[in-house]
Amino acid sequence: MKFFVGIFLIALSSVCASENFTIGFKEVIQSKTLNEQREVFVHLPDSYNSSSQSTYPVIYALDEPHFKYLVGVTDWLSRGARVIPEYIIVNVVNTDRYRDFSPSKPKDEPNSNAGGADKFTAFIANELIPHINKKYRTSPFKVLTGHSFGGLVTLHTLITKPDSFNAYVAMSPFVSFDDTELVNRYAKKLKQSSQIKAFLLMTMGNEAELLPAFARLEEILKTQAPDSLKWQSYVYEDESHMSTPSRTIHPALNALTYYQGWRVNKELLNSDFAKIESHFSQLSKQLGYTVEPTPAVINAYSENLLELKRIDDALAFIEGEISKKRLTAREINQFAYQLLWRGEANTAVTVFKRNIELYPDIANLYDSLAEGYESIGDLSQALANQQKALDLAKQQKLDNVDYFQNRLMQLSSRQPEKRLP
């Protein structure tokens, strides 16, 4: 249990002392295509301002109610779990969903304003994306996400402007709209669109009105999608139309990571790390920008070495990654806990100490080292480092002071009493 507490605390150490919490800001764009002002919310990753050379893939989201949890899940998987890259998130604020997201005008609604999807996607492709690329450090990888009517226009964009994005996520897309006109168009278009190169993930809840058209679209994709169009589809029988987005985002982000090659399979993990480096080198050439092995890949490789009981190789590997400055205090701490978990307590203490050499001002690292000393029975050193953790936490006014205080009291209670002669 202490292992997980330690990792959790190191993950939170950068935010514990923060007072303000802002997830994004608003921008206003004057659209010539739509002849109106459009607002967007923009979220920048935490590392954006501290890493002036880094570029970031971008998620364009079409439903502003989902902005908060999209930011939350993306930030946690990138900063907390470290299993996906960081993203810039651009959320388009809706003005008229029915107009902008409907690809056609139903015959029984001749006076409606439906059918504006082509204009809206032109605004995205020709105005919004160039604006974001000019103002922010973006990488070429772009994702479009949408729910319900937003999912409908997401599917419409894939079939009409497939090069606009690299990946598409359609959540409970309203595919029954206009007598399944879009599904019919997929049946015709896919036969002529053999070169569509993209990734599609679509989901549906337990939605009787939409499931027949959704199932037909799945069948069309199974029989007619070109090999260059990679796709996944899921029906969540325990979800409703409104609950599918939160169920979809996590697996979608993971699937994108594997699709893009940011994570590697077991075969590569079992090989020499030079092959993994080669994989990322080829990926960089393919994408047109530098992609290095992610912390998730580095951690998976080191843990694989530990599973094979190649302790010295794992230590040498981690030291090499430290020298390349590809590991943060959190990743090094996680590796040390993996050693501790596997009964390599003395080696874990060595790694905990090495981490403190690199990052001497992080209170939680002294708490971790205290735990390492405690595991080998050196209560004196455990107490000294736990005291250091507490002192730093108080000095930095961290929120976890009480945790460190309680740990110090627990260790003190185990210290043998000194007896007078």
Give a structural overview.
There is one protein chain. This protein is an alpha/beta fold and 421 residues long. Helix content is 53%, strand content 13%. It is built from 17 helices and eight strands. It has helices spanning 2-12, 67-80, 97-101, 117-135, 149-160, 177-192, 211-224, 244-260, 266-269, 273-287, 295-307, 311-323, 329-341, 345-358, 363-375, 379-395, 401-414, and strands spanning 25-31, 36-43, 56-61, 88-92, 138-147, 167-171, 198-204, 229-235. Strands 1-2-4-3-5-6-7-8 form an eight-stranded mixed beta sheet, sandwiched between helices.
> Major beta sheet, specifics?
8 strands, mixed
Order of helices and strands: HEEEHEHHEHEHEHEHHHHHHHHHH
DSSP summary, beta strand count: 8
**Helical/strand content category:** alpha/beta
Write the layout of secondary structure elements.
Layout: H1 2-12, E1 25-31, E2 36-43, E3 56-61, H2 67-80, E4 88-92, H3 97-101, H4 117-135, E5 138-147, H5 149-160, E6 167-171, H6 177-192, E7 198-204, H7 211-224, E8 229-235, H8 244-260, H9 266-269, H10 273-287, H11 295-307, H12 311-323, H13 329-341, H14 345-358, H15 363-375, H16 379-395, H17 401-414
Helix pairs in contact: 1-13, 1-15, 2-8, 5-6, 6-7, 11-12, 11-13, 13-14, 13-15, 14-15, 15-16, 16-17
Task: Summarize, please.
The chain is α/β, with parallel strands linked by helices.
